[in-house]
Design brief:
binds pyridoxal-5'-phosphate, about 35% helix, 4-stranded antiparallel β-sheet
């Protein structure tokens, strides 16, 4: 790592190797086995409220989980899917894998996630224009911040459209004391190397019940029928999680709460540092029902603030460059999907919020590697950049 302060990087807890060694010892070096089963159980215990009928299926990536979620919701060629525009591209790409069209919806300014009113309007407009309802709604808990679940669910219920929650960034976040990943018909988690916990690469799909779980598992293992020969009655995928990766996941689950607590502690340090500092607005839980994991703390710069070098490429880019010179990694807020060349022909319902956030926002480091010393350097560098 050297002296570089990275935006987000997972940290091993120590027990990961034991689970991997057990897999080697017992020759479970395949995409199934005791670590996969154990990791799924760990996730269910962590995520699901008591008495929940949901099940968690471990998969090769969060993107694979979104794809199989859409497959399960029956998204097909020619369908439309409502997708939050302000997100990472992996929320939208699987809609294209299915030959369907993402219809992008802008954010509300409180959580930065899909605007429920605009979503409602957009669905009505799609129905008027195409004569059909969209097949699904994909919303995101961006940077760990839970979306306005109840309002989204209300809109979804009103139109009878199923919802997929992309909680890839929100492992451990809660809305009304329920864990993110639990809302909607399907929920998605990611265990990529830069997320809250890692399996080096991996993801999971939260399924509504045991039957859905078994179908997802079947899709993820090439859709083989229960015949002595290889019989396939529908398309299949190779999306199951490796037993080695799941071993890392089991070790990570032993330190998951520590990691979440650390991210919240880092957010508290930024809160204290910027509370009377003009020019910086820290993105915070907008109400008591929201409890973000603060996977990435994010700030926006107020228009009155002046940062050295902002004339060239705007405030976030000027700040990013100043921090980069000090070997501190930061990142622009996601560039909205409706502004991406690849998605330029997709319908979009906009209110300017996501574009404003892209133009004024910056994500700050928060991983377990960011301690008091690192924070002091980050905060003093940020403050000294103001003119
Ligand atoms: C990381 C991420 C994904 C994809 O997860 P992978 O495990 O990297 O495939 C999907 N959506 C969002 C919002 C993400 O941040």
């Amino acid at each position: 790592m050297g002296d570089r302060i990275l935006l987000s990087l997972c940290k091993m807890g120590g027990k990961e190797k034991d689970f991997i060694e057990a897999a080697f010892r017992d020759n479970w070096v395949v995409p199934l086995g005791p670590n996969v089963d154990g990791f799924e159980k760990d996730l269910e215990t962590f995520l699901l409220p008591e008495g929940s009928r949901k099940r968690v299926c471990a998969l090769a990536s969060g993107t694979a989980a979104i794809h199989l979620g859409l497959v399960m919701l029956g998204v097909e060629r020619g369908d439309e899917v409502m997708v939050q525009s302000l997100t990472f591209s992996a929320s939208a790409n699987p809609v294209k894998y299915q030959g369907a069209t993402p219809v992008f919806v802008d954010s509300e300014p409180e959580t930065w996630n899909i605007d429920p009113q605009l979503l409602d309007y957009a669905i009505k407009d799609r129905k008027d224009k195409t004569g059909r309802l969209p097949k699904a709604i994909v919303f995101v808990d961006l940077y760990g911040m839970p979306a306005k679940m109840r309002e989204i669910e209300e809109v979804a219920r009103k139109w009878g459209i199923p919802v997929l929650e992309d909680a890839a960034e929100a492992f451990g976040s809660e809305y009304q004391e329920e864990k993110c990943g639990n809302f909607g018909e399907y929920g998605v988690l990611s265990f990529n190397g830069n997320k809250m916990i890692t399996t080096s690469g991996g993801g999971a799909l939260v399924c509504p019940d045991d039957e859905a779980f078994r179908r997802v598992m079947n899709y993820a293992t090439q859709s083989r029928e229960a015949t002595p020969w290889y019989q396939h009655e529908r398309i299949g995928y190779n999306y199951r999680m490796s037993n080695i990766c799941a071993g890392i996941g089991r070790g990570q689950m032993m330190v998951a709460q520590e990691h979440i607590d650390h991210h919240r502690w880092v957010q508290a340090q930024y809160r204290e540092a910027f509370k009377d500092f003009e020019g910086i607005i820290l993105h915070e839980n907008p109400g008591p029902e929201f409890d973000s994991n603060f996977w990435l703390p994010t700030i926006t710069f107020s228009p009155e603030a002046h940062i050295s070098g902002e004339e060239a490429g705007g405030k976030p880019e000027a700040m990013r460059r100043i921090l980069e010179k000090e070997n501190i990694e930061t990142r622009h807020v996601w560039k909205p999907m409706h502004l991406q060349p690849f998605f330029k022909d997709c319908p979009a319902y906009l209110n300017g919020v996501s574009e404003d956030l892209f133009n004024s926002g910056l994500c700050l480091p928060a991983s377990p590697w960011v301690g008091q010393k690192e924070l002091e350097k980050i905060i003093s560098t940020i403050k000294s950049a103001f003119k």
